[in-house]
UniProtKB/TrEMBL annotation:
Coiled coil: none
Organism: Corynebacterium mustelae
Keywords recorded for this protein, A-Z: Hydrolase
SUPFAM superfamilies: Actin-like ATPase domain
Protein's name in the database: Ppx/GppA phosphatase family
E.C. numbers: 3.6.1.40
Length: 333
């Protein structure tokens, strides 16, 4: 038996997944998310705000304590858009090394490429899609970027791309009014259209038969679409949402203030001020899917890059065990 932890540090949130691997089966132990807004102001200053680093440190410290309690033996932490863009990222990485090193010596957050992020998200998101036709297109809408990856159930990747559009980036760069003005919306939609046009040149969107939305913007919108009274991951996971309903709902989110959004119990207070930016990205994605394929619904997944990281850790552990077994056999021989 072994226990592994995966941490995803995005522009907006810091998330933790702890799993147990035993007899070929991976079991989820704990999954947590807290809004830390590490990428706050990065677009404007080019640096991580010291207050944002401190918020992240406090949450990561709590996560490390939970890992100790759950007897985690290995951990991998990935850092995405916010740290890729920051000039003072070394300060952030020193902090993660200090904390993660207590779980596994030498552990430190890694900056991964958008393409690697997309691949890990794909591995995690398609794990429960045996009944859905492939190829799949997994769309991971984050705070600073949106990853698109098309692939098959066996893990073969047909194309991937990281588009520089996310809920925080759209809000800070363009949609600064609350609610956004008509001019801001026009600029935002043009920005999304340009990024999607570029994506279509790189990723074979038209080949996909099933589209999967994951991460906080998609799952929160799914909770609203399902009429949940509280956020319920089990109800959200593997739900099917129709585009016509999603367009009505995203227009409603865009048209109200962050204070009004915050009143809904399924909207995390730290997401209320940026989800309108995410909603504009969602609308552009829906248009792209429908125009490219004629498909008018998508699957929402609660599994994503964290589950992909755990799968990698399990595979590495199995490979190491096989090498040790071979070495022992060789010694005996």
């Amino acid at each position: 038996m072994a226990r592994f932890a995966a941490i995803d540090c995005g522009t907006n949130s810091l998330r933790l997944l702890i799993c147990e691997y035993k007899n070929g089966v991976t079991k989820e132990i704990l999954r947590l998310m807290e809004i830390v807004r590490l990428g706050q102001g990065v677009d404007a200053t080019g640096e991580l705000d010291p207050a944002a680093i401190e918020r992240t440190r406090e949450v990561l410290k709590k996560y490390v304590e939970l890992m100790r309690q759950e007897r985690v033996t290995d951990v991998r932490m990935v850092a995405t858009s916010a740290t890729r863009d920051a000039s003072n990222k070394d300060e952030f990485f020193r902090m993660t090394a200090q904390l993660l090193g207590t779980i596994r010596p030498g552990a430190v957050a890694e900056v991964i490429t958008g393409e690697e992020e997309a691949t890990l998200s794909f591995i995690g998101a398609v794990a429960d899609l045996a009944d859905e036709p492939g190829p799949y297109c997994v769309i991971d809408l984050g705070g600073g970027s949106t990853e698109f990856v098309v692939g098959n159930a066996d893990g073969e990747i047909l194309g991937s791309h990281s588009a520089q559009m996310g809920c925080v980036r759209m809000t800070e760069r363009i949609m600064r009014s609350d609610p956004p003005t008509d001019i801001e919306l026009e600029i935002a939609r043009d920005h999304v259209a340009e990024r999607i046009e570029q994506t279509q040149l790189i990723v074979p969107i038209a080949q996909a038969k099933t589209f999967v939305g994951c991460a906080g913007t998609f799952t929160t919108i799914a909770a609203l679409a399902l009429g949940l009274e509280e956020y319920d991951p089990k109800a959200i996971h593997d739900s099917q949402l129709r585009f016509d309903a999603l367009r009505v709902l995203t227009n409603q989110l865009i048209g109200i203030t962050s204070a009004e959004r915050r009143m809904n119990p399924v909207v995390h207070p730290g997401r209320a001020d940026v989800i309108a930016g995410g909603a504009v990205v969602v609308q552009g994605i829906l248009d792209m899917i429908e125009n490219q394929t004629g498909i008018t619904s998508m699957v929402i997944s609660e599994k994503d890059i964290l589950d992909g990281i755990i799968a990698d850790l399990v595979a590495d552990s199995e490979a190491a065990a096989a090498i040790r077994a071979a070495a022992i056999t060789g010694e005996v021989m």
